[in-house]
Write a structure and sequence with these properties.
Strand 1 and strand 2 form a beta hairpin. This protein has one domain. With 181 residues, it is mainly α. Strands 1-2 form a two-stranded antiparallel sheet. Bound molecules: zinc ion. Zinc ion binds next to loops.
């Protein structure tokens, strides 16, 4: 099972992993969540989830509470963006309900794909047995199989938004380091 599958699976998991290794990374995650909750800036959190050491990442993976919380924050972001860009009309109760479902689906798919959109065959390297990977054609990226049509279009859009948010955070953090050095 790839990370994206496990991610979606663990959203519905009822038992949280609770061993020593997972405890150690909890405070780090808690502080990243606090920043996101206070300022609405998901950058530090996304950065930590994706690029932190493997311990932090597996803690995140195993903790359905973290995933649910991240998804909640990201769904709010996607809703804001979807409304601003008028993806769908929201004039009637029925429209609003359908819009909510769309925002939620796009948020779930884009986050899962962003967290691990790597080709399974080559592990994201694009190379297999010294040739371009046949599965992904050398791009190293997995097919976005979980969404189609309208949802897929917005999902890809939000995947690049996630890249932007994380990249902006990395750039800000790097410039801070330079200034203090
Ligand atoms: Zn590949």
């Amino acid at each position: 099972m790839g990370f994206a599958d496990r991610y979606i699976h663990s959203l519905s998991a009822s038992n949280l992993k609770d061993d020593e290794r997972h405890h150690q990374t909890e405070p780090l995650m808690a502080s990243a969540f606090a920043v996101a909750n206070l300022t609405g800036d998901l950058g530090p959190l996304l950065h930590r989830v994706k690029f932190a050491d493997s311990t932090a990442r597996s803690a995140f993976e195993g903790n359905a509470g973290n995933l649910a919380q991240l998804l909640r924050l990201w769904t709010a972001e996607v809703t804001k963006r979807g409304r601003a860009r008028r993806w769908v009309p929201e004039n009637t109760a029925w429209d609003a309900d359908a819009a909510q479902k769309l925002y939620r689906a796009v948020a779930e798919h884009s986050l899962a794909y962003w967290l691990d959109g790597k080709c399974d065959s080559c592990g994201g390297t694009g190379v297999e047995q010294a040739r371009a990977c046949r599965c992904c054609g050398g791009t190293g990226k997995a097919e976005l199989t979980m969404a189609a049509g309208f949802v897929r279009e917005h999902t890809l859009d939000m995947v690049s938004e996630l890249h932007n948010i994380a990249d902006n955070h990395a750039a800000r953090a790097a410039s801070k380091l330079r200034r203090s050095g």
